[in-house]
Amino acid sequence: MNDIIQYFESIPSSHRALILAGGIAMFWLIESAVPFVKFGYNKWQHAGINIFFTFTTIVINFCLAVVLVGTAQWTVDNHFGLLHWLPSMNVWLFALVGLLLLDLIGAYLPHYVEHKTKFLWRFHLIHHTDTWIDTTSGNRHHPGESVIRFVFTTLGVLIVGSPMWMVFLYQTLSVIATQFTHANIALPKQLDKVMSYVLVSPDMHKVHHHYVLPYTDSNYGNIFSIWDRLFGTFQALDREKIVYGVDTHMKAEEHNDLRNLLLIPFQKKRLPKTDA
């Protein structure tokens, strides 16, 4: 574990970029060879839109990184946060507890709040408009949402008291998990079900992308599935019944046009979700 800590304490930006690009490339090849759903879409054009949003997220996080690093260092220097107030534990348990708490406060909580707050939903909606969920969809976030999520991530680091190596480790695992759960692939059903008791599985997350309530407002988990099960937000739906998108934006000109996607948070019509 000490080797892992040392690596993530000073992980080069080039390595983080390689993990992001390599993950997308790997899952892109797998889903191209054995797609779960054979979409009738222009895969390159669709990827172009989603990669644009990936790029804006990277730029925003890079520009604000000094805030995140400073917050993590402050918690360590001042012994502030849940990890510093808990009884002493071995390094493996320390890492696991930290990752679980970061997943709860920095990922599950903001995702839940975005769905329940009309103003924040306007920005998160862009992620849900995608009717062709593949590995590039995982990073389809409006620049405004990237800022919102960064604020929650920083708040999570402050409350948890995470050292920076743990933040980098969590973000790395999060990138891989997001690419995996959005990829247009399917695991054997029983394997997927067993996995979903601990980790977010592809079937579990794709239910979240079903186009109507109550499924859209479920399965908020990022890496760990236990928070959805603990807080009663877990939903299951046969994979064959899932229809991607959101019921207010099912037309191509609404969900497959970059200009419109950027403007959606500022449009007043057709934003509320409707029940099934």
Tell me what the structure shows.
It is globular, with a radius of gyration of 18 Å. Helices cover 62% and strands 0% of the residues. The mean pLDDT is 94. The chain has 13 helices and no strands. It has 276 residues and is mainly alpha-helical.
Keywords:
276 residues, 62% helix, mainly alpha, 13 helices
- Enumerate how many helices there are, as a single number: 13
Poorly predicted residue ranges: none
Number of strands: 0
**Oligomeric organization of the protein chains:** single chain
The biggest beta sheet reads:
none
Q: Quote the beta fraction.
A: under 5%
Structural class: mainly alpha
Helical fraction: 55-70%
**Mean pLDDT across all amino acids:** 94
**C-alpha-based Rg, rounded:** 18 Å
Short description, anyone?
This protein is mainly alpha-helical and 276 residues long. The chain is built from 13 helices and no strands. The radius of gyration is 18 Å and the shape is globular.
